[in-house]
Each structure stands twice: as C-alpha cells, then as structure tokens.
Write a structure and sequence with these properties.
The chain is an all-beta fold and 160 residues long. Helices cover 0% and strands 36% of the residues. The strands form two sheets. It has an eight-stranded mixed beta sheet with strand order 8-7-6-5-9-10-11-12, with no helix packed on it. A four-stranded antiparallel beta sheet has the order 1-2-3-4, with no helix packed on it. The mean pLDDT is 88.
C-alpha cells in the first residue's frame, strides 16, 4: 500500500482530528511553525499534502507544545480551538484565513495540559472545559463556564 505524507510539521504533542469547519469531514488540529491552526485535505485528491490554516499570529509555541482541543465553547454552533492558555473563537467565516479572537484563561498554567474537551458537565446548557493539569503528571480539572446573558466564556475551576 502506498504511503502518503499529509502534513509537516506538527509541533504539539497531541494533535487532534475533528470537524472544525462544519463540513462533516475531519481536519488536523495542531501547532505548526509557531502558529495555532488546522490542516485540511483536498478531498478531490486526499493523497496531496494538507494545507495549513493559521488561526493565530505567530507566537512562542514550539515543538512539544502541550494542550489542545476542539469544542463549541460559546454555543454559537461553530467549534473553537482550546489551548492551555485560553481558547480561540471561530469567526463566522473562514474565508481568507482570518486570525481568530483569543480569550485568555489559564486552563493549565506551567507545564500545560494534554487533551482538552468542551462538554456540558453540569447540564446547565454551557460547555465547560475538561483537561489535565499537567501533561506528564497527575490531576484532572473541570472548568465550569459561568456567564451572564451576553457574555462569552468566563470560567471557574473545580477539581474533579
């Protein structure tokens, strides 16, 4: 069977596959060359290398960056990208590869987390964030989303 390289480099330890764009097909969620973003295939020829779409300005993210996930944090029907220092809000349109709005929050200060999930833990209709506290250590946290009517993504931490 032929081998096909789809994308390089992925700089974080735990890239994920998720339908970020809402087309029913998965994208590779990762860091690459100092940017947060995702790589998407050309479904007309999936053997071609995947195209990277940066969602952030260039930052200090590097090889072995910890903590990344996908989920609809603000309830607008679009998946956002989670990272150890906050979350990136997906804009209404992805045309032209816009920089996404960043909402800072220390989900896993220090060493960083590993996989991250947006899930409504307490059934209040708001997706919370679940992640590890240390990528290579112990500890799991649930960050409860608290907000008033028109606010977006305020969190409170609760250890599980």
């Amino acid at each position: 069977m032929p081998r096909h390289e789809i994308f390089r480099p992925t700089d974080n330890e735990s890239p994920g596959l998720a339908d970020l764009t809402g087309d029913g097909k998965p994208e590779l969620i990762c860091n690459s060359d100092g940017f947060f973003g995702y790589a998407a295939p050309d479904w007309n020829d999936p053997t071609k290398p995947w195209k990277f779409h940066a969602i952030s300005q260039k930052g200090s993210w590097q090889k072995f960056t910890h903590g990344i996930g996908v989920g609809d944090v603000n309830g607008d029907g679009r998946n956002d990208i989670l990272e150890k220092d906050g979350w990136w809000e997906q804009p209404v349109s992805l045309a032209g590869d816009p920089v996404w709005k960043f909402h800072p929050f220390p989900f896993a200060p220090g060493v960083g987390s590993s996989q991250m999930f947006a899930y409504d833990v307490n059934g209040d209709g708001l997706n919370d964030v679940i992640t590890s506290l240390n990528a290579h250590g112990y500890g799991l946290a649930w960050y409860e989303q608290l907000r008033e009517k028109d606010e977006k993504g305020e969190f409170n931490s609760s250890n599980i």
